[in-house]
Amino acid sequence: MTSDRTATRRDIEELAGGIEAVQKAEIMALGTTLSELGQALAWAAGEGDATDRDRLPLAGRAAQVHRILTLPFAFDEEE
């Protein structure tokens, strides 16, 4: 992904698969570009080797998107 175009809801759904609606909304609220989304998805999938990850850590919105994608969501079904 090399686009600096802002990711749309459709882009996020196509690229990120079955993530929760709240995650999609948070990613969109950041104004995430397709490039940033691609970087975050690659890291969330474990792509790249440890040396590259240590040398070039995610930053900015890509890091925020990665956090959104990898944090567990807890839902209280009793409410």
Features:
single chain; 79 residues; mainly alpha; 58% helix; 0% strand
How would you describe this structure to a colleague?
The chain has 79 residues and is mainly α. 58% of the residues lie in helices and 0% in strands. The radius of gyration is 13 Å and the shape is globular. The model has no long low-confidence stretch (mean pLDDT 84).
List strands and helices in order, with pairings.
Blueprint: H1 9-16, H2 21-30, H3 34-44, H4 50-55, H5 60-70
Helix pairs in contact: 1-3, 2-5, 3-5
The secondary structure category is mainly alpha
Count up the helices.
5
Poorly predicted runs are none
Mean pLDDT: 84
String of helices and strands:
HHHHH
Radius of gyration (CA) equals 13 Å
Q: Name the beta content range.
A: under 5%
What summary fits the major beta sheet?
A: none
**Residue share in helices?**
55-70%
How many angstroms separate the termini?
A: 41 Å
Shape: globular
The counted number of beta strands is 0
Could you write a compact summary of the structure shown?
With about 80 residues, the chain is mainly alpha-helical. The mean pLDDT is about 85.
